From TrEMBL:
Family to which this protein belongs: Belongs to the sulfiredoxin family.
Record EC number: 1.8.98.2
Name of this protein: Sulfiredoxin
Keywords (A to Z) from UniProt: Antioxidant, ATP-binding, Disulfide bond, Nucleotide-binding, Oxidoreductase
Record organism: Erythranthe guttata
Domain ParB-like N-terminal intervals: 27-106
Length: 111
């Protein structure tokens, strides 16, 4: 599935949309397609990011980050340390557990 998503992204230039009734799916998303609306309200523990970078380099990401898809846009509210570790490692994508939501769901997360 992850390979298929990478191929689709390479061909189309954008991540695939989660099917309407899919529940949650695990897919690999480009980091630059994930909006992080709470990024400025939190600071990450640099030591934890460093440890995750080492772990991800050795064995890969073990736990996908949670992402909400609303109208084709992806929003990440958790997994801040894992996301930053991927950024600092220069990795273009991250494994995500994506669930579809509504604008009302998104507003709830932003409160």
């Amino acid at each position: 599935m992850i390979l298929m998503c990478r191929v689709i992204c390479a061909i189309l230039g954008s991540p695939p949309s989660v099917p309407q009734n899919a529940g949650t799916v695990i897919i690999e998303l480009p980091l630059d397609k994930i909006r992080r609306p709470l990024m400025r309200t939190r600071s990450n523990d640099p030591q934890k990011v460093k440890e995750l970078m080492s772990s991800i380099s050795e064995i890969g990401l073990q736990v996908p980050i949670d992402v909400l898809e609303v109208e084709g846009e992806y929003y990440g509210f958790s997994g801040c340390h894992r996301y930053e570790a991927h950024q600092q490692l220069g990795l273009p994508t991250i494994r995500c557990k994506v669930r579809r939501g509504t604008k009302e769901t998104l507003r709830h997360h932003l409160r």
